[in-house]
Specification:
By secondary structure, the chain is of the alpha+beta class. The chain is about 25% helix and about 15% strand. Bound molecules: iron/sulfur cluster (SF4) (2 copies).
């Protein structure tokens, strides 16, 4: 039985967008701003940075099925158990920040306490 049949469609309850690797103060401040908002996260995976928005898809039905399955976006078609972070135990982001406070700890580490807020 596929893990999807026992899942409440976690993969349809958020989306992630690639963001530029932060290099300058403005970039770090933008990330702090993203993380100041509720239901966001920022993560690093294979040296790429992503913004995660925890907002469920408008086409997800109460039975955890897709209302537009036949015309769902390509990214949904390409996603499955093989790429699912909720299946198996060996999937982990290199680094994940759930709020501004966690990111500030990272900035303190990275800049050895010299980051100017
Ligand atoms: S791909 Fe993963 S998150 Fe999505 S329904 Fe299947 S098990 Fe759940
Ligand atoms: S379009 Fe369908 S498969 Fe894609 S996120 Fe929405 S509910 Fe899930």
């Amino acid at each position: 039985m596929s893990p999807c049949s026992k899942c409440d469609a976690k993969c349809c309850r958020y989306f992630g967008v690639h963001i530029d690797t932060p290099k300058h103060k403005d970039d770090f401040e933008n990330i702090r701003w993203y993380l100041a908002h509720k239901d966001t996260a920022v993560y690093i995976e294979k040296r790429q940075w992503y913004l995660e928005i925890k907002n469920k898809c408008r086409y997800l039905m109460k039975n955890h099925r897709c209302r537009v399955y036949e015309r769902r976006p390509t990214i949904c078609r390409d996603h499955g158990v093989a790429t699912c972070e909720h299946v198996g135990e060996d999937f982990a982001h290199d680094r994940m920040f759930h709020d501004m406070k966690e990111f500030d700890v990272y900035l303190a580490e990275r800049f050895k306490g010299k980051y100017k807020f």
